[in-house]
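fwd from M.: "can u put these together and see what the complex looks like"

so here's what she sent:
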Amino acid sequence: MRDATAKARPAPRLITLTINGEVREVMVRPRIMLLEVIRDHVGLTGTKDGCESGTCGACTVLLNGKPVLSCITLAVECDGKTVETVESLSEGGKLGDLQEAFLDQGATQCGFCTPGILMSAKALLKNNPKPSLPEIKKALEGNLCRCTGYNAIVDAILQVSDQGVAPLMK
Amino acid sequence: MSKLKYVGQSLKRKDGPDKVSGRAVYTQDIKLPGTLIGRVLRSPHPHARILKIDPSKALALPGVKGVITAKDTIGVKHGFVETPRYPADQDVLAIDKVTHVGEEIAAVAAIDDITAQRALELIEVEYEILPGVFDAETAMQPGAPEIRPTHPKVKEDLVNIAGKTETEWGDVEKGFAEADYIREDRFENQLRTHGYLEPQVTLAHWEGDKLNVWTSSMGTFIKRAKLSRTLGLPYSQVRIHKTYVGGTFGGKIDLYSHEYCAARLSMLTGRPVRITANREEIFSAYRHSQTLTIEIKTGVRKDGTILAQRFRIINNAGAHRGSGVVVIFLAWGFIMGPYRIPNLKYEGYAVYTNHTTRAPQRGHGAPKVRFAVESHLDMIAEHLGIDPITIRLKNARGPWEQLPNNDNTHEAGLIDCIKMVSQKSAFLDKWRQARPPADPESPLRRGIGIGVTSYMSGTLIYPNGSGVIVKLNDDGSVIVLTGALDVGQGAETVLCQIVAEELAVGMDDIKLITSDTDTTPQDIGAWISGMTYVTGNATRQAATHAREKILKVASEEMGVPEEDLGIEDKSVFNLHDPQQRMSYAQVFSASVAKHRGDTIIGEGFWRTMRDEPTHPSLATTKGRWTENYAFSAQVAEVEVDIETGEARLIKAYTVHDCGFPVNPGLIKGQVDGQVSMALGQAFMEEVMTKNGYTLNPNWLDYRMPLIHNMAGSEDFEVITEQYRIGQPYRTKEVGEGLVSGVLAGIANAIYDATGVRLTSAPFTPEKILAGLRKLEREKARELA
Amino acid sequence: MILFDFEHESSPSAEAAVARLNEVSEETRFLAGGTDLIPNMRIGITKPERLISLTSIPYAPPTLDAKGWLEIDALTKLSEIEHSKLVGDAAPMLAASAHSVAGNQIRQVATLGGNLCQETRCLYLNQKHDFQFVEPCFKRGGDCCYPFPKNKKNVCWSVYMSDIAPVLMALNAEVSVLGAGGEVRLPIAALFTGDGLRPHTLNPGELIRRIHIPPAPSHFGWGYHKSTVRGGLEFATALMAVALEVKAGGLVCSDARIAIGAVNEGPVRLDKTEAAMRGLELNPANLRMLADQASQEVNPLPHHGFSKPYLRDNIRVHLKRTLSLAVERAGKGLKENRS
């Protein structure tokens, strides 16, 4: 049975993204979100899908250097842009300082919010190497974490920005 | 006793590198070729008879590969509790009627998400709407719409009773008669949800003779049991694989219909099927916590000694029995743990209503019970002119007290907890000072309050015990096979620490293979606060077993008696001549060569309450509950704006008797997280419903704490147990019980700051303002 | 995830976008930051068949025009407004309001124009309707109102929650609207109908082009407060924006504008309270009196679980504080002017 009201589906479009330094070409229909491209088309599953409605921050990636919610960003809007995901934070399997600080403070528990929080923190530290507590809170207010109560996350950012917080864990 | 190197240290998480790098694989990250998208058709009505389900149009839609309804099931019911008294009452897909909004009616599998959505829209269901009932106390009354028959053992003239817990000891009436002061209060609690970040998601793949399942859960073995039974498959045909789990907090135990549907649809289509619940489904159709209404009557002596207590608890259990009949049992346990109650009468009712089915939630009722009891106790203390610390010390249980159910408090550190938290928070210096701010114009008032809790550390429920295998590699490193599931609490790290200590190997020398029902031993799961104790002791035993084999072989090879051998750095050495040593690699070779190929495998197993045949009676509380009670005392400091009613938690102090702290850093993480949950419960979280529909099924309108709401948190341990290598040890729970004291402390602190006594959570600005106005009116009346 | 297909095209200029939208026949929406539109499409409040993206259109940073008016392109991102030195100097209240919107990630892409054009909100409206509230409500073209079942068909008490619109009202801002017939400049208040069903006066094919904010007079003070439960990542419980002027040499009010947001179908000015302020000395007792009056003048809709009496209480206390902050700032301005 054919739906009489069915119209031709919009043609998929070829878009080019530079994801973590690698140029990727993907075919997408307009309704496809950047998150789906990253996770399903490119296969980088570090970025998490927590609410698909822009309310939890688990899908945060950097788009042209800015932290955005990839679950409410249309992929076709990202043509020609650069994307950085959590996978970009370690190089050759070696963790970056920010990641190490999260381990030092026990700032990850279930770990599901962690990739998004790391990307929000990275965006903050890039422009503000020694953020104050209110600045940290403002930068991370869009990232929910249900496990840690946020204390350890703040400590990790203070530690990596060399503001007098010593590692908690050995 | 040798010095501990790994156990007792704040060692970094074993799973940490996976989680900060994005390598950690959660269920939503598993990709299989040819996977179909599954969706569930849900009831739009809170209570309705299903007259007809016609999936034919959906089946005819191109791209739809399968549709299932109740007709495609074998009709086996399931439930959180499945006992002779409380048989399962939940169908995986509704058969003749639906009893809550969002109840599962059918499921589809299609080639993509849009097709699956269209297929759902094409399933035709005819309903006959039935009257619904949503308030538990209304639902109990004769004449209320019947959701399910009242439990046959409940002889009162009440309807919709899913179960009742009733117990009594001493002579309550006599206790009240002897009391100098008697007080009665009633407390109410809001509906609250778990708020796990990872949505409920299941991927199932039927391979003709084997069902492979990846699902976000809290215990793989109980999932296997329930899935096997509802599908009619032998356990051996169902394999639940390990994945990382993005938060649970009680909300992912038991069987969920989408897990069944993904499995059944995969069996029908022969293709992998994934079902992911969207956030709205989780909020408006899945299981939340339970809203207990708690009535307390207490009689005390002038000095504050509790003589008698009577409790009546009503639980709005939702559409099925769920864990509703467990909460009314546990509530009793959370009442009788911390304080001596010589005479007690307890009644708890679980009542069916047309709300969604309920689940455990971190603390499983304890926060609500302790909020009520600790508030009530402060009110009594005020009447008697006693401070909150003194009245608690007066009634607190000490070590080695025999409880009415024959449990024992063992080395209870509660009295020390209360004393230490009082001292650490300078409680009595701050209490009742109202602490006028530096600026006399300021509307901000500070207050301080305390709450006390005890919590079980593991109990008996399927699968009741944990096994662990520790095996040596021929290079001397170690592989641990355990069914333990790390849901964020740090199980993998803690178990590694125990193996590292027992075998003198580095944390990096240990590889874990976990929570896979085919390859790892059975495990109790991450949901009864017993993992460090039960699976921890199984792990210790397995490592000990391996160590004994190592020492035996080394003793033979080195010609040194076993008692003269020590171990360090993956090698065995002569205590009297430390230069004489053998690496584990050498020991391994020798063992294989001379012990008929023995590759040095250690086995361990553990069960709490070894001699108890089964768990206690949910109906009568008879039988032992746990052999390890954790105790804690917590203090909250709050700040209240008396003009706006806006309040916040400034700082929480936690002092707890956790037995032996295997990893203090991980414990701190558990404490901080529970403080955050408590402040959310106190000030901001509520699932709003109207006639069974959920009004705020998203994270904008259901407000979980943000980084802005972070509170200061300090924790201190009262260590009542020691870890001895090769000896059983008692750790106590730290992951659930510590929401309670903070929540109770906040309620008491608001009173300290403002004089407003709140008996219903959450403590919103609106309620605080109403309380302040009432006080003003009372003051005005007194003056007039 | 949006479960229906639609076309998407980018427009090189605002004029081209308007022309294109007037040319196509299917239901079409402009797309800027998308932080309101995309979630609304996901839950099916709106189901456009085509999006015309404005995100490739170049826009200039905020400037001061010849008369000293601050001019901001409607495509400017909220994070850019938040951090713009010029906006911070010329219209700090606007910067403060942009800073208070949603969360950081949203502010990176959400635009000024988009914030003003956001859809109204209601607990029943802002969710998927797969199995809850399946029958469409008035706002969704249907035949019922879930929260207020007795409402007539042309009445929707959903709430307009822009954090920025009340600020622009208090600042007497103007807005340039581009339509098929060219650009029209209007007072900001002309954007809003006060009708929950159709909260904006913009016609399809019309587009907010830029915002104009007049220079602050001397002896000017402002106050802004967004009441929330958690201090962030939230739409407001209630929102207040105050702009006032005092006469030289004292605290006598010469002019005042108060706009309240998030409690009605559109932002509202408190005309009576403003009138009462003019000529009044803004001492603490009078501010208290004015805030009391204002809390009676507003007629908040109960929304998102907040009752009408509570919203009045919230506005009464926070407006008093906001007013005193504005007076304090005006006073500081006086001192600076004197020295």
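replying to her w this: The domain at 16-24+461-607 of chain B is CATH 3.30.365.10 (Aldehyde Oxidoreductase; domain 4).
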